[in-house]
Amino acid sequence: MRPLDSGVNTEHHDLRDASRGRRLQRVLADAGIDSRRGCERLIERGRVRVNGRVVTELPAWVDPAVDRIEVNGRPLPPPERHLYILLNKPVRTLTSTRDEPGADRRTVLDLVQHPARAKLFPVGRLDYDTTGLLILTNDGELANRLTHPRYGVPKTYRALVKGRVTDEAMHALEGGVVLTDRRDGRTVGASRTNPVEWKIVHADEEKTTLELTIREGRNRQVRRMLAKAGFDVKKLERIAMGPLRLKGVARGAWRELTAGEVRALRRAAAMEIPS
């Protein structure tokens, strides 16, 4: 009787050797098969072969230049070139790849006239009337790390609020505030936000301009935090994400990030830098 496949190709290469390549699920995700978690499920279900052998156990490391990788019996397509777009988002624009049927609102993808725009998705969200820095990419791993609070990548906003705001009033936000948590349109509890960094840029009797830096990204978080402290937000703009700042891009315009900017973002997100 033929022994069960162990899931590791021991005849030619040991897929348990981390020095020989990249994680199999990341190679599949980069080739556009599915999300990283979806690719992990494909592997666990025995749908992936490496050099003719079924792989069902993780972690497994592969070298796409050497290994023959198949998904559902088909050779793995070459990986997509990762794209990184910086958009200066205007107001009344939906941070989504498409709107709800019949709503007919402008989306951020409507503004990005790039040949590969259909494969791009926004990193995090800016609400409908918030402006400023938004990254669009097809790099799911970097997108996840830039938005997940575990990695603590800072996002800086400039807010114009009604009335004079004093230092004393802002101290209430430093340690975070309690906000309700929502999932699938329902309230599922409440929790305290992470600490906030802030400074007052300008203040007079009628208005105050603030800069706030947060390291998470809850829905409408900055507006909700300022409202909780009693401040009425008139304008809100994101001006930085990690090392990337909103400079030289007109409202509604976009450009590709430079290789140096991508490397800086990857460092900020604690990702390895390819040689």
Task: Describe the protein's topology.
Layout: E1 22-23, H1 24-30, H2 36-44, E2 48-50, E3 53-54, E4 61-62, E5 69-71, E6 74-75, E7 84-89, H3 108-111, E8 121-122, E9 131-137, H4 140-147, E10 155-162, H5 167-174, E11 178-183, E12 186-192, E13 197-203, E14 207-214, H6 221-228, E15 233-241, E16 244-245, E17 254-256, H7 259-268
Helix pairs in contact: 1-2
Explain what the structure shows.
- Helices cover 20% and strands 29% of the residues.
- The chain is α+β, with helices and mostly antiparallel strands and 275 residues long.
- Helix 1 packs across helix 2 (36-44).
- It has seven helices and 17 strands.
- It has helices at residues 24-30, 36-44, 108-111, 140-147, 167-174, 221-228, 259-268, and strands spanning 22-23, 48-50, 53-54, 61-62, 69-71, 74-75, 84-89, 121-122, 131-137, 155-162, 178-183, 186-192, 197-203, 207-214, 233-241, 244-245, 254-256.
- Strands 7, 8, 9, 10, 13, 14, 15, 16 and 17 form a nine-stranded mixed β-sheet that branches.
